[in-house]
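Module 6 notes. Inverse folding takes a fixed backbone as the condition and produces residue identities as the prediction. Think of it as a translation problem where the source language is geometry and the target language is the twenty amino acids. Below is one complete input and output pair. Work through it position by position during the lab.
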């Protein structure tokens, strides 16, 4: 099944994972150690703040989670399907994600916490945008599931069962991309603070243009 996976998925997945790792590193360093590319840590902070009775922080973290879901909703509305396929409107989703991060930078530089909400929405959109293909879960904004799947694959191999090497390679590429993006994001934040987010904005715009060009060329070749 994974052999049907087009080669552009690995490259695109790696670049998107780098983007998410970059944004998440800025989030951890700039938002009181709160990650924004996934909701596991945010949910834990949310629980702690409920126990401590900090109503403002509870409402803030609730908005972070809700905006992540809102980003996924936007992805569903724009792309219209969860299965990964060339030709769908990923370029438009990438432009919207870039717009969300642009607004986030402007708000964060003015000291508005709502900038964190929009950064979370951008990650939620990206996470929903790359979903499934040929039975493989292609997530680009968090790596817990990827490490779990790698562990399962090695466990199966130890039992003498076959392992889908293509899928394993994809997961390793996604993890490598996320970690690389995190390194770049951490360095950029030390130099530029929240202005570091302009880098993933430009990155997303570039990916959008590249994908649009690839999709247009593919449609032209089918028309010939």
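Target side of the pair, the amino acids:
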């Amino acid at each position: 099944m994974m052999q049907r996976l087009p080669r552009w998925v690995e490259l695109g997945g790696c670049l998107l994972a780098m983007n998410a790792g970059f944004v998440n590193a800025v989030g951890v360093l700039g938002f009181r150690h709160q990650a924004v590319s996934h909701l596991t840590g945010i949910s834990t902070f949310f629980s702690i703040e409920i126990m401590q009775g900090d109503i403002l922080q509870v409402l803030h973290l609730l908005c972070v989670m809700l905006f992540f879901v809102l980003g996924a909703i936007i992805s569903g509305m724009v792309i219209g399907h969860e299965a990964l396929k060339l030709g769908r409107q990923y370029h438009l989703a990438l432009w919207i994600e870039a717009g969300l991060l642009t607004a986030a930078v402007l708000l964060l530089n003015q000291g508005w916490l709502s900038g964190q909400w929009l950064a979370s929405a951008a990650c939620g959109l990206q996470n929903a945008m790359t979903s499934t293909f040929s039975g493989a879960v292609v997530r680009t904004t968090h790596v817990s599931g990827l490490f779990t799947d790698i562990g399962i694959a090695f466990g199966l191999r130890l039992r003498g069962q076959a392992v889908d090497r293509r899928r394993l390679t994809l997961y390793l590429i996604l993890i490598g991309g996320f970690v690389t993006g995190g390194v770049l994001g951490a360095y950029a934040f030390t130099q530029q603070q929240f202005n570091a987010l302009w880098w993933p904005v430009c990155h997303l715009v570039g990916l959008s243009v590249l994908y649009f060009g690839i999709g247009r060329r593919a449609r032209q070749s089918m028309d010939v």
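Reference fact for the lab report: The chain has a mean pLDDT of 85.
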